[in-house]
């Protein structure tokens, strides 16, 4: 049994894995920033509604 073990090109595979990791981190960062943006906007809207109700009464 003479099996030849072919290792993948380490630089290419590492680059691909690194790119995947960077893309994943970028997507996570975008998601968290969108989450914070939505929280900020909803809090602003809530404050505006609260001020509007307070000014009406």
Features:
single chain, 57 residues, mainly alpha, 1 helix, 0% strand
Judging from the principal axes of the Cα atoms, what is the shape?
rod-shaped
Order of helices and strands: H
Q: Which segments are poorly predicted (pLDDT under 50) over 5 or more consecutive residues?
A: none
The main sheet comes to: none
Secondary-structure topology with pairs:
Elements: H1 10-56
Structure write-up:
By secondary structure, the protein is an all-alpha fold. It has a domain of 27 residues. It has one helix and no strands. The longest helix has 47 residues. The N and C termini lie far apart (88 Å). The model has no long low-confidence stretch (mean pLDDT 81).
Short structural description:
By secondary structure, this protein is mostly helical. It contains one helix and no strands. Helices cover 82% and strands 0% of the residues.
């Amino acid at each position: 049994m003479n099996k030849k073990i072919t290792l993948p090109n380490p630089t290419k595979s590492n680059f691909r894995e690194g790119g995947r990791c960077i893309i994943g981190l970028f997507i996570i960062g975008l998601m968290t920033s969108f989450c914070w943006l939505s929280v900020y906007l909803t809090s602003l809207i809530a404050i505006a509604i609260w001020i509007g109700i307070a000014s009406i009464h």
